[in-house]
Each structure stands twice: as structure tokens, then as C-alpha cells.
Design brief:
With about 90 residues, the protein is mainly α. The chain contains three helices and no strands.
């Protein structure tokens, strides 16, 4: 196993990491933006107001995108485990 192989495995791992985390992060970002606009419009400056909507949005996102995320992780792990003989020998 040479440096190029290690770099390729690291690149693939980071790619899977970004793909799996993107739906949850985007849901939290969008919800935070909507709540911030609502707080600015109504002048309600309660810090805990944004927590519950973000939590609900992330839960709904996990329910909707969870199977896709699990499939993506499972496929990556299967490819990684299947490539072990080629990496060793």
C-alpha cells in the first residue's frame, strides 16, 4: 500500500462524510435562517427559540434521508472491506 492508495482512501472517506452529513447540516442551516428572520421581524430575542425547530427539522431530515445515508455508508464499507485483499497484496 503506497501513499497514493492512502490518499485515495482518505479522499473517499471525506467524500462519504460530506455526503452523509450534508442533509442534516443543510436542514439545521435553513431552519436557523428561518427562525432568525422570524426573530428579527418580531423582535423576540429568545436564544432557546431556535433549538426546538432545529431539533425537529433534523429529526425529520433523518427520517427522510436516513435510508439513503445508511445505504451510502453500507456501500462504502462493503467496497472498503472487499478491497482489503488488493491493498495487502
Amino acid at each position: 500500500m503506497n501513499a497514493g492508495t492512502v490518499m485515495e482512501l482518505g479522499r473517499q472517506a471525506l467524500e462519504v462524510l460530506l455526503l452523509v452529513s450534508a442533509p442534516m447540516l443543510l436542514a439545521a442551516l435553513a431552519t436557523g435562517l428561518v427562525v432568525s428572520i422570524f426573530q428579527a421581524a418580531t423582535q423576540i430575542n429568545e436564544m432557546t427559540l431556535s433549538f426546538i425547530p432545529k431539533l425537529v427539522a433534523m429529526f425529520v431530515t433523518l427520517l427522510l434521508a436516513g435510508p439513503w445515508m445508511l445505504t451510502l455508508l453500507t456501500d462504502y464499507m462493503r467496497r472498503l472491506i472487499e478491497s482489503i485483499p488488493a491493498l495487502i497484496g
